[in-house]
Amino acid sequence: MRPLAGLPIRVRLTVAFAAAMALVLAASGLFLYVRVGAALDRTIRQGLAGRADDIAALVREAGPGLAQAQGRPLVERDENFAQVLAPNGAVLDSTPGLSERQLLTGEELARATQGTVMVDRPPFPGADDPLRLLATAVPAAGGRTVVVVVGTSTEERAEALESLLGQLLLGGPLTLVAASLLGYLLAAAALRPVESMRREAEAVSAAEPGRRLPLPAGDDEISRLGTTLNTMLDRLEAALAQERRFVSDASHELRTPLASLRTELELALRRPRPAAELRAALASAAEETERLSQVADDLLVLARADGGRLPVNPEPVPAAQLLAEVTERFGAEAAQAGRAIDLQAEDRLEVVVDRLRASQALGNLVDNALRHGRGRIRLVARRVDDRAELHVQDEGPGFPEGFVGRAFDRFSRADPARQGPGAGLGLAIVAVIADAHGGSAHAANRNGGADVWLELPADTAR
What we know:
This protein has 462 residues and is of the alpha+beta class. The chain folds into three domains: 11-158, Beta-Lactamase (2-Layer Sandwich), CATH 3.30.450; 221-306, Signal transduction histidine kinase, dimerisation/phosphotransfer (DHp) domain (Helix Hairpins, Orthogonal Bundle), CATH 1.10.287.130; 315-457, Histidine kinase-like ATPase, C-terminal domain (Heat Shock Protein 90), CATH 3.30.565.10. Helices cover 52% and strands 16% of the residues. It is built from eight helices and twelve strands. The protein has helices at 9-62, 106-112, 155-203, 221-270, 275-306, 319-336, 355-372, 426-436; strands at 81-85, 91-94, 117-121, 131-139, 145-153, 315-318, 341-345, 350-353, 377-384, 387-393, 440-446, 449-457.
């Protein structure tokens, strides 16, 4: 098959079809040849058996050797020849032309006395054609047993088989050529939609979105392949659009702190400044640098998640302990804002998580609640079937109408003008961390605030 690898599929299909067709034609021709030969043999045998029965009846009536005396020939002229032999090989009667020539050998004669024997003979003097003989024992008058031998030429059988073989050798190749041509045309017709899709796929590019492969009529394999490829193009186009939005949003989020940092440094260097103003400028620059660093870290987490390489090392962790660590980390910031953080966790509830990643996700939720919510912040852990839910709730105005459905999208912010703090990546990171653990992230508005929670695997052994 390697030499055919570079050929078009339609040619390879035609070659395979022609090879299979050749085998079928050869097998069919051989079967037909054998069957016709067997049918001719059966006809010859039946004819010889009928003649042998006629001669046996004559021998039983007139006795061996009396047929010629009564002027009654053993066979008709067109039935070739016959012979009556004694068990010792003596010729008792024979058709004209055979004289005293014995048709059977001694071994064949011995076998014939025991049952019917069929023998093929090459031409001999007085007979130009190959012969087939049938010999059978017949009881004669006086209790004697004689052997009746009848024969006929097999030339007509040979000529019929030779004619059949010639027709097969002539018609087989012609049939193979015609079938191969038809197979090529069918393969070309079947692959025409594939070629059409190939040309259209070659023209598809990112610069011209929306182009799709043409689908053939019907619901066959090629149509389903085209539908699958069009669906794949839809996904790729959506991914490309998302990637472009991601790059645009990332550029926007990075450009703002970079511009602020550059402005602060330029103002500080424009003329001599008092130490207090320099310290304020450096503090502002440090704040913008921290913001840049945070955006870069968030983008790195999202990039690893997109590549399926966000590292997590899950282990059973008490839910109360995990919430307590987050509460302690944000306790001072909440107290400074005049707010409180409450903790409520079911006893003996453990979650199977990477402690650092889970703490990062919960920290993002608490940070959002401090930035955008009001009142007390409640951290709640509870078991739901074989899963654990870690909730962060506040008493603020909740999410704006229509925002909940896209709260976990990247760079998605409730403030369309993007004037508030943050880059809109916090909830997106929460979602990818939950997904990396085999869980999910959810958001909803409740009476008097927002509720955002993680659904994570729970330790069912507890």
